[in-house]
Amino acid sequence: MNITEFAAYAGVSKAAVSRYFNGGYLSEEKRARIEAAAAATGYRPSLQAQMLRTRRTRQVLVILPKLSSESCARMVEGISAILEESGYQLLLVNTAAGAV
Question: Domain segments of the chain: what residues?
Fold first, then answer.
């Protein structure tokens, strides 16, 4: 679902959807409509579209020596959860096969 389809589903303009997801001012009525539509559809703005618009990737690279290690796996799970909550993507590189 893209922003145009989501805005139509929520019964608001694309500008209102953009303001909502970027922390701008909205009336309580529009905010409630968008929140209800987002909960019903699971809509989230496209990271790729945001990257093109802002020229920021919102990606974090983590280089690990060994992915099969239990401690590394727990660390990656924690990092991934925090990054996802903040709207970032995790890029993971395993160096076990050789130097990067």
Answer: 3-45, 56-94
